[in-house]
Amino acid sequence: MKKIRWLLWFPLLALAAALAHAQALQPVTTVEGVSEYRLPNGLRVLTVPDPSIDTVTIHLTVLVGSRHESYGEKGMAHLLEHLLFKDSSKFQNIKQELTRRGARYNGTTAYDRTTYFETLPASEENLDWAISLEADRLVGGRVAKSDLDSEMTVVRNEFEMGENNPGSVLFARMQRLAFSWHNYGNTIIGARSDIESVPIDRLQAFYRTWYQPDNAVLIIGGRFEPQKALAMVAKHFGAIPRPARKLPALYTAEPTQDGERSVTLRRVGDTPVVAAMYRIPAGSDAEYAAIDVLVHALGNAPSGRLHRALVQKGLAASVWAGESALHDPGYAHFGARLAKDAPIGPARDALIATLEGLARDPIRAEEIERARIAQLKEYENVLSDSRALVRWLAEFAAMGDWRLFYLSRDRMEKVTTEEVQRVAAKYLKGENRVLGTFIPTDKPDRAEIPPRPDSDAMLSGYKGREDVAQGEAFDPSPQNIDQRLIRRELPNGIRLALLPKKTRGGRVLASLSLYWGDETSKMNRATACDMAGAMLMRGTKKHTRAQLRDAFDKLNANVSVGVGSASVDTKRAQLADVMRLVAEVLREPAYPSNEFEELRRAALNRAESKLSDPAAIADERLERHLAPYPRGHWLEHRTTQERIADLKAVTLDEAKGCYGDLVGATGAIFSAVGDFDPDAVTKLVEDLFGDWKNPVPYKRIASRHFDRPALTEEVRTPDKANATLRAGLNIALRDDHPDFPALVLGSYLLGGNSAARLPLRVREKEGLSYSTYAFFSASSLDPTATFGVEAIFAPENKKRVESAIQEELKRALDAGFTESEFENAKRGLLESRRIARAQDGTLLGRIANYAYLGRTFAWDIDFEKRIQALTPAQVRDALHRHIDPARLSVMKAGDFR
Description:
By secondary structure, the chain is of the alpha+beta class. 45% of the residues lie in helices and 16% in strands. The strands form four sheets. The chain has a seven-stranded mixed β-sheet with strand order 1-2-3-7-4-6-5, with helices on both faces.
């Protein structure tokens, strides 16, 4: 009895200690289930509990970005983000530690903030570990000269990757003109000279100044016990003292623009671009909701004004519109991508006339309502997905206060046509534009940008609405999934795989997979069938393309439909109506000729934009070498020039012919995951698709194994700052081969995670590449598998990258892997599979695939047991049997001068 009393005392003492820590966190406010707390050292903490998922996300936002950089420091915030994935005072090799725990992680830098986040399987141990990591990373990062030397070249390679895209370069030039003084005129990734030359002491000083608890927001989302999580935060972050320094005050304000500004970019490329940028208020401004609606109404396809004025009239292949909700007054950005040889003048004139012509042709109420519904749907989708909500709250915190997310939604609901027309006249004007030529005028008509409003005053007493409905605590183990999965078959052969479960906000994901045709009937029809699928959402016999988009928006549904599949993301109450509309799209396409020509122009534009792209060229060369299917075969890898020729030659009748001759629902598979009634869904699928039969029987087209010799090719792509390497090898096996688990784990060890051999050598140690990895994939039906390696790099580093890859492959095949390296990778791979099953979208895809293969999740159980039982010697031997570096085919593309 005495021993029992002692055992009871230990948890009581632990609880008392936790409560003592938690008392340091003072509650601030709660809005719609999101609660804010604050530590005495200034750290703000948000909790976003969601028991319906089996993961927990820890999201640290440091309120520093490119806006806070001084002269000579351009790109410092982003460079520092990279270095803080190295070592800290208590954690060595942070990426490897995250990978070992199967975490999905990343860091991002923006104008106003830098974020670090990781999603792990939900457990108190993982949560405590991740919180302690972020606390130590906040103030205990090593930020060493040796790490800067290696990582600088990685960041420079990332910079060079952006330099390959003329559209990105043009945007940066326009940004510089729009903001002559404010740091929003600088790119987030920075200036090449500053990236290459930044002194380590300045970087360390920048880190010590901004990386402090009074300048950070910690958000915890997913499945966790809030009080225990707060105790962990108090334990790890509460020990950090409040800094003595005061945060630097940023006081530079961009003066009002007093005339049109323009820039012309001349570089190697394939498709012209015209664009316009206008300065607008800060994201927290009361006018911002109306600006948001205006931008959507102008840029939406197919009903937006820009699409109708440029794309439908054949002046451009595609258009875009967007705006940035920033801490300080920011910008709206509009543009059009033209066909390769299209004249620029008419498109530029139409772009400006559409944007600045709203006084002559005022915005209409139906345009505003359509845009407003679409934007509100985005808010609703975020509220139904706690992972997305965590990300959005971080962005609004950087804007000024996380509660602005809810206030912005409220403002969006109240936007009127008059408000939108007013902001259009106020900001979309020539003297606030970056584009075109300078025109002198005696009467300047300038756009006065209001200062950033006081967020505290606006949000004083704000409470929001009722909490979003919570989902159930779902166990993503293969055993539980198999136990809860409902499998049915309809009279016409449609198979259903249904996994009902309570989800946050009543969300449900569904997919319909169609199987049709055979090798003979699909010969020489790839382009026609592609166009047939892309045309489905462009109009039915009852609804135009714009009407379909509006209908799906009103139903709060994200839908994708093609001749091979349809996917749906909606809520329980709307599922039946959404599926009826999807059935109309699939079964009653109108195939309007004007939409076909518009689609062709867009497809040609996408293909032409790849003609000089190093990554596209290397991919194309390697795929054609490794899989030389004959011309016209359904599995053929066509060149870009062949795709362009096929697009120019294909007709609307050929697209209709593919659909009419081949497509039906015989033997289709319908899968769903989320909040729905299985019996009601079964009846709905039978009513909608039960009588839709294939015109001809379906026969699967088998993939072929090609025993190809090693081939090395090099293609020069002038004026491209970033080069690409693609290497590959065919292997004759399926995923039921005895060596399959060992090859999966072996490729993961070689290059399947950031701590693997290839990225560790090429990126982390030598700083030669932003992205280097290896992969292995095998068919479940045919003896066709592929091992490959991919890397991007500066062209002058080509030999060093190739040598490093070859040396690491040889070292792994000769010496194998260390015990700790092997065990960490095994654990990371298995944990990542668990996390994948906890993501409804990934789980839905696996359920559908297993239904097609006739598999259950017992396959996962067996596969993961085989992974767990592997030894380093078995993995090395399997790699030896199937992978010979001398047989790798290697394609390189870049400006190798």
